[in-house]
Structures are given as C-alpha cells and as structure tokens.
Amino acid sequence: MPIRVPKELPAIKVLEKEKIFVMDEERAMHQDIRPLEILILNLMPKKIETEVQLLRLLSNTPLQINVDFLHMSSHEAKNTSSDYLDRFYHRFKEVKHKFYDGLIITGAPIEQLPFEQVDYWEELQEIFHWSTSHVFSTFHICWGAQAGLFFHHNIDKYLLNQKLSGIYSHDVLSPTWSILKGFDDVFFAPHSRYTTIKRSDIDKIDELEVLAESAEAGLFLVGNKNNRAFYAMGHLEYDRETLQQEFERDQLKGVNPKLPKNYFPNNNSKQLPPLRWHMAASLLFSNWLNYAVYQNTPYDLSDLLEK
C-alpha cells in the first residue's frame, strides 16, 4: 500500500529500506482516487520511532492513505525539537475543521498520573469530543486507550503493584469480529504499563465488548460494537528492541526494573529477544483499516456529521 506522507519525513528512509512503498505528496497528487485520510495523534516521547512503527503497520493493504501527524499544543515536547514538530506535525486548531476516516491515538508514559493532572488533558478532551463527529473509527493504544475509556465511558484505570512489562499470551474471545479476522486462537503481544483496566468495568457498558485478553496481563482489546472505536491495552506496534530500550532506560534512571517477562532468551538481557508479535500486529492494523474503516466510512467524509 502506498502511504502518503510529507516528502522529507525521516521515517521514509527507514521504511524504504524495508521495501515498504511510501509515496510522497507530489506523486500522490497524480493519482485520481479517494485515499483514506488517517490522523495520528503521537503522544510518545520518541516521535520518529513511533512514526516508523505505525507507518510500517499501515502499509499492509492495497489502499492509499494520506497520513497527518498531530501533537499537543498544550504540552512542551522534551525529546523532539519544535522545528521538527512545526515541519511535520499539525496542531489541533489546524485540523479541527477536517474530517478523517481513521484516528490513531498512541500511548504515553504518564499512566501513573490521574488524567486530570496531565498538562494536556483539557486539549485531549476536546480532541476526543471532536473525534465523535469528525472521525469514522478511532484506534486507541495503551494510555490512549485508558484515556479514551475514561472520557467516553467514565471507566477509570487502576494502579498496579509493579510495572507490567513483557510479552504475554492472549486468547481471542470474539473471533467473529472483523478486526480479528484471520487471527489464531492465541497470539502474543507486548505490554508496558503501570496501570490496568478492570474487565468488570467494561462488562457494565452495553456498547463495549472484550475481544481479547491475557490470563497474565489482563485486557488486551476492547471494541465498540459499532466499529467506531477500539481500545488496545498493549503495544503490538513495538519493535523487537523497544522493551529492551525501555528496560535500559529505567535502569539508568535508577528505577531498578524487573526484566520484561517472557522477553529475553534465558532471561539474559544481553541476548536478542525473539520477535513473536509482528504477524498479529500487521493483521490487526490491516483489519482495522479494511473492515472498520475502508468498508464502512462514507465517501464524502462531511457525512460523518449526520452519523
């Protein structure tokens, strides 16, 4: 699938090395088709790394996609220069008049804070509210999923006794859902968080359904029955080394972290972790694009106001 992004976005070089077809804006202008419009709200500190991870996963269908990146105006990024954000990202006020087929809201390393204490919470609430009338389907990831459930359904998160980090086995509970089409009964996925959502709180909401969960890690995927919102508690988009990098970062901070569970061979942090979740990641995102977005979104996106 050709992904349309700004011509000089650094992620392009990484993706082209992986033989992923990335189309710059100039070439895309000559194609007379209606591409999907996808907005990515990137809340992760390492912007470029997350861009590569998500664009890689959006590349597995024959659909053309226009991708816009969004950052929070009310938060000062510490790991990404303002020049980079000005060049490749939008502020919400610059896109709030637009309509999108899909929105991806990433995680953020702030889950130990109450939502109301997050410096950009007010702006994020505005985006959540706007998405109900200007986005056809939203895919929330980790903290983004917890924040979305809190805003839309008043479901709060709970602090864990220690950080949940590792690769966990998950059971598919609702294989008839199109977003899980082609999945095996069991799949692996990374988790990296300090908080959790209780299954009992999800079960109280009629329009929500638990689609996949882990005996060890708890909930993984929750879906709105109208396909307009999905909440993934883990990080299928992570690269092979991401949990390792987080572990080493926490070591440098003096946090004294435990080894990510089921991750390093022989629990040896010097050995290369096996990649066991990439197939599930590719399938989940391509299913979301195909079944939840492409096959259901209106051709004229302004019709979302009528839905």
From TrEMBL:
One GO cellular component this record assigns the protein to is:
cytoplasm
Q: Which UniProt keywords apply?
A: Acyltransferase, Amino-acid biosynthesis, Cytoplasm, Methionine biosynthesis, Transferase
Locate the site labelled Important for substrate specificity.
Answer: S192
The catalysed reaction is: L-homoserine + acetyl-CoA = O-acetyl-L-homoserine + CoA
UniProt site positions, description: Important for acyl-CoA specificity: E111
Q: Which InterPro entries match?
A: Class_I_gatase-like (IPR029062), HST_MetA (IPR005697), MetA_family (IPR033752)
Q: What is this protein called?
A: Homoserine O-acetyltransferase
Q: What organism is the protein native to?
A: Candidatus Enterococcus mansonii
